[in-house]
Specification:
By secondary structure, the chain is of the alpha+beta class. The protein has helices at about 5-10, 25-35, 55-60, 75-85, 90, 105-115, 135-140, 145-160, 190-200, and strands spanning about 35-40, 45-50, 120-125, 130-135, 170-175, 175-185, 205-215. The protein is built from nine helices and seven strands; from the N terminus they run ααββααααββααββαβ.
Length: about 220
């Protein structure tokens, strides 16, 4: 089974900033390229951190309300320093959390979920930036055609991995939802088959409707 990698899904032409890039220039980069953040790179193109719209808005959030109706927010020392920063080096959130091009969608998605991130810079073996991958990039696997998903299940999951004839199980795919029906020899194969199908890129859900199968999941009591 072949899973799509971060390197296949990432954007290679990355808009970036340097540590000395100014506040207004970063704002201009975001507006001109219709993006919400930029990685900050050192002179060897290694990511140091990320400057996002949220980082820039700290400047406004720290200001006193002109009407005098709102209290001045109490910021932590680090946030207050960032709210007064004028260059990417002071504004950025760091260190940068990065991905590798050989990672699967699952690896990248789990890191994004764990770190509450919307995108990941992608780096090579030397730590240099080679691309960026976003949540929307990872979701592209769900745009796979139903027929491509069906053929992968039949050829890779049934034939190559489990050694089953693709004709013994009916595989139907509609909008990424897989339905398996037919007959399998052993009940223990059912959860394995379902798990493997769920791991196929683009699968949204799996429904199993097997007619009959021998129950080999009940432990046999030892003879006394």
């Amino acid at each position: 089974m072949r899973h799509r990698t971060v390197g296949e899904l990432m954007t290679r032409a990355v808009v970036h900033a340097r540590p000395e890039t100014g506040f207004k220039e970063i704002t201009r980069l975001l507006a001109d390229h219709d993006i919400t953040s930029v990685p900050v790179l050192d002179r060897e193109d290694r990511p140091l951190g990320i400057v996002s719209e949220a980082d820039l808005l700290l400047n406004e959030a720290a200001q006193e309300d002109p009407s005098g109706l709102l209290l001045t927010p109490v910021l932590a020392p680090r946030e207050r320093a960032r709210s007064r920063a004028t260059t990417a080096e002071g504004l950025m959130t760091g260190p940068a959390v990065c991905a590798r091009p050989e990672w699967t969608v699952v690896e990248a998605a789990r890191l994004m979920q764990r770190e509450h991130l919307k995108r990941l810079p992608v780096v090579d073996e030397a730590g240099r930036l080679i691309g960026i991958v976003s949540r929307s990039d990872l979701l592209r696997v769900f745009l796979r055609r139903d027929q491509a998903i069906r053929e992968e299940i039949r050829q890779d999951v049934l034939d190559r991995v489990l050694g089953l004839s693709p004709d013994c199980i009916d595989v139907r795919v509609h909008e990424g939802r897989v339905t398996l029906s037919g007959t399998v020899e052993r009940r223990s194969l059912v959860p394995v088959l379902e798990r493997l199908c769920r791991s196929v890129d683009g699968v949204v859900d799996v429904t199993v409707r097997f007619d009959r199968c021998a129950d080999d999941t009940t432990a046999v009591s030892p003879a006394r």
